[in-house]
Amino acid sequence: MNEEENKDSEINRGLEGVIAAETRVGYVKGDDGKLFYRGYEITTLADQSNYEEVSYLLLYGHLPKRNELEAYSKRLRNESDLPEELFSFIRSVGAKTHPMSALRTALSYLSSFDENESVNDPEDQERIGISLIAKMPTLVGAIHRTYSGKEIIRPDKNLGYASNFFYMATGARPDPVESKIMDTSLIVHADHGMNASTFSALVTVSTMADMYSAITSAIATLKGPLHGGANERALKMIKSMGKPENVEKELKRMTENGERVMGFGHRVYKVYDPRAKILKRYAEYFAERSGNENFKTAEMIEELMINKYGERGIFPNVDFYSGMIYEALGFKPEIFTPIFATGRISGWVARTIEYSRNNRLFRPKAEYVGERGPLKYIPIQDRE
Ligand SMILES: CC(C)(COP(=O)(O)OP(=O)(O)OC[C@H]1O[C@@H](n2cnc3c(N)ncnc32)[C@H](O)[C@@H]1OP(=O)(O)O)[C@@H](O)C(=O)NCCC(=O)NCCS
Q: Of 120, 254, 372, 379, which is most buried, counting CB atoms within 10 Å of its CB?
């Protein structure tokens, strides 16, 4: 069939509404504002679980027994360190490159230290996937340190995943509340249906490319402001508005100019994003602890946006409050999206492995609307 023979099919711009694969990893119930990982609700996991357990759940489909969790956590700790060359690379680019760009290249560079980097069989996918999950906090921690002009900190194998990440990124050991908030932030970002970065990973692996390539594609896709990049911009917007009394005027200006309000709206949720609800609690905790006014400004933005756009299904999404939490934890805004990636890597790996088990090359079509030709070729010297 010719590429342009598309006349009877509807064009689904952005593949909106198209079901392209089956999955058991997780799903989003957009109308009810619910998110499930392997059948467990995100609110339950955020309250009762931890990132290592959630990561295991996403990968293997069941909650681990005690010995399974111990073995998985030990593996993550043992594989968390990086080759020295990676730290040198991060030192050389980390201060001048956007952390998401540094992360994309650093993760891809890791493949050079793996003799079987191009192998895409199930064992190697799992081996590489777990190794990348283990190394992500170390990569992002090192990038954050370098970007902040500080010395890189190597993993402390006595700490859990989220606490170790916090330690490597900020240089401080988290108190129990900070540790819980860091952990929850990673949990709520761990998986989210067929989002753009996950889809990107699946497109890459559908060509039978390896896990390093799939995760590099996912990181590249997460970078954009309509996906992971929104949290950094949401906080900048909240801060630029300053006091709550400035919000109304500023929102009016933005909507008149057709500007998008970052941290609002979602392709799937048409009600309040459950992840935003979980994170808002923590943003409020930090605001009370520090007396920072950003939270009040954010609440005012939320109130006015919901009054104006709630009926059209535009509510705060996960990115609206996450930036405020990360800043309170001591992270620079440019590292917010890499934190998102650190949570999401378990979902990327789980779905990439799952898709490969029942692989089908992704190859949609585009409707050709250009010049049909055949045009006469004019030599360069005769062109007007
Ligand atoms: C996430 C997003 C791309 C999903 O949008 P979508 O499902 O593709 O919806 P559309 O872009 O088609 O928007 C539908 C309508 O809502 C409006 N809208 C959606 N999100 C908006 C926002 N954040 N601010 C202002 N208006 C918004 C659009 O302008 C559009 O209005 P129109 O019908 O009058 O043209 C969109 O909500 C957005 O750009 N949000 C801001 C970025 C963000 O927070 N991203 C993180 C997502 S987790």
A: 120
